[in-house]
Design brief:
Mean pLDDT: 83
Largest sheet: 9 strands, mixed
Number of strands: 18
Strand order of the largest sheet: 6-5-4-7-8-14-11-10-9
Radius of gyration: 34 Å
Number of helices: 21
Low-confidence stretches: 1-17, 602-611
Oligomer: single chain
Helix content: 25-40%
Shape: elongated
Length: 611
């Protein structure tokens, strides 16, 4: 019986009695080495009890037959699912077919059979992960990360996003785990069910805490749950600064942060009265109080240079100590408010204000045209109507001037029909008003003073140890969270969830987070090595780069195969597609040069040295 084995453009006729096989290796050996450095499978298997013997084992023992091969452990199932998510993720029911195209003997040993990775086995592994506690498991993985690699956790960034789904997700109330329900959609899809995914990462984007909660959970509650988990990560609060958007700025979250001891740098929301007060104080400061914080070129050569300038003013915030039994004890805390003017944001605000005035002026012109047709019996009535309309249609940046004048209406016969012979009609005297529109340049200049302004609030003293330019740089690093969301929410990652129990969905989100950690860690280690050695790698379109993404590294290894050829005393392994750049990548990552050529060495991988 002959079958055709196709592997990324390669096809090979393979007989069941013939041991010739072509299997993919790609980037997976490197990724699995880093996973084992983090001891992901070890940590999981230590927390999950081994599976009990099934009826097949009992029957084989009774008949004196060899016991059946044990199923893959939960840790090994987790490794397989993490590598699958890294490559682009297929549904759990397709994992077995995906594994058949890989060199599983080189990755996990000859005792691993892809046929054992059924959707039932993987679903049971997800259940076991949930029972073991995904938060506790990830805490141990983060501890290994900090111990094995030079990871700085003194700056943390937090944000939330919504993960949309469709289909039947109605589950009984008694089942634990996050529920997919309707809530505020950050993707503007209120018609879909969703979960709320919270992520806290360090400066390079490595996830430190992640949570998946019900789709209608507020951001402030997710934020507080992350703070409680961070307190258990054994970080030094006095040296840790928490960076967040405006959702982090409320009395309860700030009070919890200060009670734990963490510092905070956050955006002061527009809804706070403190924001306008601090801006007004900063605008009253002399020009010398505004210092340049950063200067960068525009996105293109035609764009103007981007400049940020700031002024520091004191601020006192009303907070509440956390109290699970009540609303908390109110107290006050001193913060530093950094009022920042961004030239790029100022241009955006200026364009928005100009467009808004033009729209309002066009709408106002139509309203005035209708009002100018009205007439009144006396001058006082016309003046009163004009003043009432002025109060109703006032627009910032525009001056409206009203004038009342007399007018004469054409004579009209009071009744129907044609005028009688000799009948004379006298004209009617009435009063009208006219309103003219002029540009209020002074008001526009006053409004323009607030263009491009935003306020950052920090609990750290803004001094030489923590200068104002660092406050801005820390907040601008918030983009690393958004980049993590974009990777997780890409179609290849989240789309085929196909799970309907909350426990398995939470366990799958845990695997997503571990995969994101692996993706960012590989990228960080490679960029560090390239910067230290001043080397480059082929990037997109073969352009040399010192800042490759993990996706770029995966493309470099996309055509690496392991060919097994039968021989007299067994079989020979032949590596196909190996290039000098692959050896360069292994050297940069501190991995043995024969990692791909010696499966036995790979099955006992050395620890990756910290950079």
């Amino acid at each position: 019986m002959a079958t055709v084995c196709q592997t990324r453009g390669m096809s090979l006729a393979q007989d069941e009695t013939d041991a010739v096989a072509v299997r993919r290796l790609d980037f997976l050996p490197i990724a699995l080495t880093f996973l084992r450095t983090l001891r992901v499978a070890e940590i999981i298997d230590a927390a999950v009890p081994p599976p009990q013997s099934g009826p097949q084992s009992t029957l084989a023992k009774a008949l004196g037959l060899p016991p059946p091969a044990p199923p893959p452990s939960v840790g090994r199932c987790a490794e397989a699912m993490i590598l699958n998510v890294l490559e682009g993720r297929v549904a759990l029911c397709q994992m077995e077919d995906w594994l058949r195209g890989l060199a599983t003997e080189s990755l996990w040993g000859s005792e691993v059979d892809p046929a054992q990775f059924t959707d039932d086995r993987l679903a049971a592994a997800l259940d076991a992960l949930f029972q073991a506690g995904t938060e506790a498991l990830y805490t141990q993985i983060v501890t290994e990360l900090v111990g094995a690699f030079d990871v700085n956790c003194t700056r943390l960034h937090f944000d939330t996003t919504s993960l949309q789904t469709s289909g039947a997700h109605a589950v009984p109330d008694g089942l634990p785990g996050p529920r997919a329900v309707h809530g505020y959609s950050k993707d503007h899809r209120p018609d879909l069910l969703q979960w709320v995914f919270g992520l806290t990462v360090q400066a390079e984007g490595l996830p430190i805490v992640s949570t998946l909660q019900d789709g209608n959970t507020s951001d402030s509650l997710v934020h507080r749950s992350h703070l409680e988990l961070l307190a258990a990560r054994r970080l030094d609060p006095s040296d840790t600064t928490f960076i967040g958007d405006s959702k982090s700025c409320n009395a309860e979250s700030l009070g919890l942060l200060r009670s734990v001891g963490f510092h905070i740098t956050t955006l002061l929301p527009q809804t706070f009265a403190q924001r306008e007060q601090r801006i007004e104080e900063a605008l009253q400061q002399p020009e010398a109080a505004w210092v340049e914080l950063a200067r960068r070129p525009g996105d293109t050569r035609h764009d103007p240079e981007r400049v940020w300038r700031g002024c520091v003013v004191p601020c006192v915030m009303d907070l509440r100590w956390p109290d699970p039994e009540g609303e908390g004890t109110p107290f006050q805390a001193r913060f530093g408010a950094l009022v920042i003017h961004s030239s790029e944001l100022s241009l955006t605000h200026e364009r928005s204000a100009r467009d808004r005035r033009e729209r309002q002026q066009s709408k106002l012109q139509r309203t005035l045209e209708r009002s100018h047709k009205a007439h009144y019996a006396c001058e006082a009535d016309a003046a009163a109507a004009a003043q009432a309309l002025l109060r109703e249609v006032a627009v910032t940046g525009l001056t409206l001037c009203a004038s009342v004048f007399g007018d004469t209406l054409a004579p009209r016969r009071p009744g129907r029909g044609r005028p009688r012979k000799g009948e004379t009609l006298s004209p009617q005297s009435v009063y009208r008003f006219r309103i003219t529109i002029e540009q209020d340049l002074q008001a526009q200049r006053v409004e323009a003073q607030r263009h491009g302004l935003f306020v950052l609030l920090t609990s750290r003293p803004i001094d030489s140890a923590y200068p104002a330019d660092r406050v801005l740089a820390d907040y601008q690093g918030q983009e690393v969270v958004e980049a993590g969301f974009r990777w997780i929410k890409s179609p290849g990652q989240v789309a085929p969830i196909l799970l309907h129990t909350p426990a398995r969905i939470e366990a799958l989100s845990f695997l997503f987070t571990v995969t994101l950690l692996l993706y960012r860690l590989l990228q960080l280690q490679m960029r560090r090595a390239l910067a230290q050695t001043e080397q480059t790698l082929p990037g997109p379109n073969r352009v040399p780069t010192r800042r490759p993404t993990t996706q770029t590294l995966m493309r470099l290894f996309a055509e690496v195969y392991l060919v097994r050829i039968p021989a007299e005393n067994g079989f020979r392994l032949h590596l196909v597609g190996w290039k000098p750049v692959h050896t360069q990548v292994l050297a940069l990552l501190g991995l043995p040069p024969d990692l791909y050529r010696d499966p036995e060495k790979f099955n006992r991988p050395p620890r990756v040295p910290a950079k």
